[in-house]
Amino acid sequence: MSRFDLSRLPVPVIQGGMGVGVSLGNLAGHVAGCGGMGVISTANPGYAEPDFWQDPGAANLRALTAQIRKAKEIAGGMGMVAINAMVATTRYAETVAAAIAAGVDAVISGAGLPLELPGIPGADRVALAPIVSGGKAANTICKLWHRRFSRMPDFVVVEGPLAGGHLGFSREEAEHPRPLEELVGEVCAALEPWRARYGQEIPVFAAGGVFDGADIARMQAAGAAGAQIATRFIATEECDAAPAYKQRMVEAKAEDVRIVKSPVGMPGRALYSPLIRRLETEGRIPPTRCANCLVPCDPAATPYCITRALIEAVKGNWEEGLFFCGANVGRIQGITTVKTLMQQLTTEWQTARRSKP
Questions:
Q1: CA 251 → CA 67, 73, 120, 159, 209, distances in Å?
Q2: Rounded Cα gap, residues 283 and 276, in angstroms
Q3: Nearest alpha-carbon partner for 221 in 192, 182, 178
């Protein structure tokens, strides 16, 4: 039995989860209020709490609960409010359980395969969605969820190599990407036997390089139910990041984007900021303190503290911040509102669907 009803999203758009602090309750709540799925990132939502560096676990859980409640209140019963939880984080299961207890509608999970997600307390009450990079990963998750939990994903996000932030691809694949439509078709094909076996739909949402309503319609033609869009929502008044962060996205050009190596070894897409240039020269900026946030991170060897870099970015510190962004950031023209952006996406999407031959 699926816990996801597509009719709850009159606009088939998921606002991608962006940490640290870029997508919290204000952005997520306004997206949900417009009929989409607003997503709060669980990557250090408590970064601004006074005790964050002393007790990051408690600060994050406290902030996450508050941000979910804020988003639900803003949404007023419209759309859906979800979290994006990274498998690679140190308190993954505890964080997901806390979000469910706070009333979140769905859990979207990537940065590793969320093989144990259905076993987390409360997971039977909410929609669960893995983020995958292709059909093989989708099939692996379905096979293991079937064997261990007799459950399927309620929906799936397939994220292509044009996305911002950490990528589930090699550097070469990110620099020479396959068309997202191909990945959508591949994932849909991998899910089809499981859909038939369980007698339920498993909607697919396409992410990574989706910019406008015409792109959403194009992904639907390839088999997707809708799309996940992240970077465009940064350039909204309701985004939880500082105005200086948003302005960097507005001013960015295509040539300002780079594939960078994250401290945890994964490639990522970000603006070519002074931090990235400094790392190219110095090789390493030793951390001065640690929030113990990511399982693969070794503070004694990591090239820099990604948590601190992302915190500086969300505060608008261009010199010391890591500014993750999608490949289409150069197409953003200015700051708008969530309502205006959602209306624009809807109009473009409906127009593109009507004009299909």
A1: 29, 33, 42, 25, 18
A2: 10
A3: 182
Three-class HEC string of 221-260: HCCCCEEEECHHHHCECCCCCCHHHHHHHHHCCHHHEEEE
Residue 321 falls inside a structural domain: no
133 shares a domain with 74: yes
CA dist 243 and 10 (Å) reads 30
CATH number of the CATH domain containing 232:
3.20.20.70
Please tell me the total count of domains within the chain: 2
The whole-angstrom separation of Cα 48 and Cα 183 is 38
Same domain, 31 and 50: yes
Dist CA 132 CA 163 (whole Å):
12
Reading the block at residue 316, the tokens are 């608008």
Nearest to 207 by CA among 328, 78, 59: 328
- Examine residue 69 and state whether it is found in any structural domain, yes or no: yes
Single pTM value for the model: 0.94
Phi and psi, residue 39, nearest 5°: -125, 130
- Per-residue model confidence as pLDDT tens for the chain (357 residues): 678 989 999 999 999 999 899 999 999 999 999 999 999 999 999 999 999 989 999 999 999 999 999 999 999 999 999 999 999 887 899 999 999 999 999 999 998 899 999 999 999 999 999 999 999 999 999 999 999 999 999 999 999 999 998 888 888 877 888 899 999 999 999 999 999 999 999 999 999 999 999 999 999 999 999 999 999 999 999 999 999 999 999 999 999 999 998 877 778 999 999 999 999 998 877 766 656 665 565 666 677 788 899 999 999 999 999 999 999 999 999 999 999 999 999 999 999 988 766
